[in-house]
Design brief:
By secondary structure, the protein is mainly α. It contains eight helices and no strands. It has helices spanning 11-29, 33-38, 49-57, 65-86, 88-109, 119-129, 141-160, 167-186. The N and C termini lie far apart (44 Å).
């Protein structure tokens, strides 16, 4: 009988998920203080170096188990396939770009709203995944349908629901995933 072994098949995705889990546990242990200090972006002084750190680290923080599990499930489902196709470096770049852009957008447009969570990264991964079979000169029908379903839902919910969810971060993440998917697969 052949032995099976567990492999660390997707270092960036697994590192992101385990780091986010540690941040969530730390947030519970500190009563949310660490999220406010390190893992949540909000309108703070541009003279504070932490403002710039939080533009990136807010994707590691989550508001609770449900929030974390929802994001982690999608990231674990889509991330390894994307990391295998595009490489660890590219996936890390997608995560960092998405974090930075969603952090900046939230800072500029929503002065009174704090943002935490990896939902923007999830939507970047969802749209990036729909480009995996992209060929130059073609637009995959799966991309069009995913864009309509996921982004359409976010626009609808952003306009008609008041649910404490940053739908704009989802849309921005989806745009980043679409752009990166197109650029990477155009070659």
């Amino acid at each position: 009988m052949k032995k099976f072994k567990i492999t660390f098949n997707s270092p960036v995705v697994l590192g992101f998920i385990f780091t986010s889990l540690a941040v969530l546990i730390l947030g519970f242990a500190t009563g949310g203080i660490t999220n406010q200090l390190l893992f949540m972006t909000y309108h703070s002084s541009l003279l504070s170096p932490m403002t710039y750190v939080r533009f990136f680290t807010h994707v590691l923080g989550h508001g609770g188990w449900e929030h974390y599990i929802g994001n982690a499930a999608y990231i674990l489902l889509l991330g390894p396939m994307l990391e295998e196709k595009y490489g660890s470096k590219r996936i890390l770049q997608v995560i960092l770009i998405t974090a930075f852009v969603t952090g900046i957008v939230n800072y500029v447009l929503f002065w009174n709203v704090a943002l935490c969570g990896a939902s923007g990264v999830v939507f970047a991964f969802i749209l990036l995944t729909s480009f995996t079979s992209f060929k130059n000169g073609e637009i995959p029908l799966t991309f069009i349908l995913v864009a309509i379903v996921f982004l359409g839902q976010q626009v609808y919910e952003g306009v008609f629901l008041q649910d404490n969810i940053s739908n704009l971060s989802h849309v921005v993440g989806g745009i980043i995933g679409s752009f990166v998917g197109y650029k990477l697969n155009k070659r």
